Amino acid sequence: MSMPRSPQAVLERATTIAVVGASRDPIKAGGSVPEGLQRRGFRIIPINPFADMLFGERVYRSLLDVPEKIDIVDVFRPAADAPEIARQAASIGARALWLQLDIKSDEARHIAEDAGMDYVEDECTAVIASLYRIRKSAA
Fold first, then answer.
1. With CB atoms 3.0 to 4.6 Å apart as the test, which of 32, 42, 86, 114 could cross-link to 108 if both were Cys?
2. From start to end of the chain, where are the E strands?
3. Which residues have CB under 8 Å from 37's CB, separation 6+?
4. What pLDDT does residue 2 have?
5. What predicted TM-score, i.e. pTM, was given to this entire model?
6. Nearest CA to 123 among 106, 98, 105?
7. Whole-angstrom Cα distance, residue 77 to residue 120?
């Protein structure tokens, strides 16, 4: 079994990030973090059952509705929701599952690892991107 990739490595190899729990509220992490990642050149795909457009992007109701390849599924939902999100991420062939700060789930970890996904928990994508100055060139 290969060594798990560091959060930095997971983010460095990604370009497309699906944000589950993307928020219309810029004060919430689910609003400010994706916006910051987008400014760094990541392609953000918001997942939210109650919005149509966020961050200038079309919003999808569920991961299962996204027609594009996803590198990271970035989770801004309570830990109780993480296993189901992990199952969806596995079923669409996402490369990594990332649970944001203060979110941990052993069950989600097992689902992700069994599916061969990279797994990060209790870390903020924006903090890692900033810390390691990770930027994507604009397409």
1. 86
2. 16-20, 43-47, 53-54, 57-58, 72-75, 96-99, 118-120
3. 17, 44, 125, 126, 129
4. 60
5. 0.95
6. 98
7. 14
Residues 94-111 have pLDDT tens digits of 999 999 999 999 999 999
Q: Are 75 and 96 in contact (CB under 8 A)?
A: no
Instruction: Give 39-66 pLDDT, tens digit per residue.
Output: 999 999 999 999 999 999 999 999 999 9
Using DSSP bridges, classify how beta strands 57-58 and 53-54 pair: parallel, antiparallel or unpaired: antiparallel
Residue 137 has a pLDDT of 73
Backbone angles phi, psi at 112, to 5 degrees: -65, -50
Q: How far is CA 5 from each of CA 1, 11, 96, 119, rounded to the nearest angstrom? A: 12, 10, 10, 8
